Amino acid sequence: MQILLHVCCAPDATTAVERLHEEGYEPILFFFNPNIQPEEEYEKRLEATVKLANLWNLNLIVEKQDKILWEQQIKGLEDLPEGSFRCVKCIEYRLRSTAEYAKKNGFHIFSTTLTTSPKKNSKLILQIGETIAEELKIEYLHKDFKKKNGFLRSIELSKKLGLYRQNYCGCIYSLRKTSNGG
Ligand code: SF4
User: Fold this and answer.
1) Closest C-alpha to ligand 1, atom 3
2) What residue owns the CA closest to ligand 1's atom 2?
3) DSSP labels, 8-59
4) Would the CB of 166 count as within 6 Å of ligand 1?
5) C-alpha span between 56 and 13 (Å, rounded)
6) CA–CA separation, 166 vs 182, rounded Å?
7) Segment 63-100, tens digit of pLDDT
8) DSSP secondary-structure letter at 139?
9) Domain 2-179 falls in which CATH fold?
10) Is 170 in the pocket of ligand 1 (CB under 6 A)?
11) Residue 24 CA to ligand 1 centre (angstroms)
């Protein structure tokens, strides 16, 4: 069965794709991340995702980024730390857009690679995914890809495939925190 898989970055997608294949799904990659700043970083992460799709012969959909709409989602929350309500709004926006695309284009089920990262709260992602799925009458497949050493596997696979790995979540606020040593 085809599944629309929101991809936050190529390294996180490696484990997710591997595990979905093991379970008999055919993941169609969906790159929609208007949170990634600056533009050069967005291009690097997209390029890595294109590379993964080519290496593993996967279908990839790159959805048009609306950075202004993303900024509106997190307006007033810019100074909050990573993992706060700012991230809830950011993740909610990306997953809602994925689910809407899935609904419009005949997919019955969607998921996300976001749970590969040990920094992401999987329970929260589950709540967000299920709420959106219920509203749009579509199915959300919740997988905590970091389980069973999923994050380590993503490092191993991305090194083997030569995929670019970032060192911050995505937005300029998370980059500043990393640059400040936070
Ligand atoms: S830290 Fe990551 S999840 Fe949180 S708002 Fe920034 S890009 Fe989005």
Assistant:
1) 87
2) 169
3) S-HHHHHHHHHHHHHTT-EEEEEE--TT--SHHHHHHHHHHHHHHHHHTT--
4) no
5) 11
6) 16
7) 988 899 999 999 999 999 999 999 999 999 999 999 99
8) E
9) Rossmann fold (3.40.50)
10) yes
11) 31
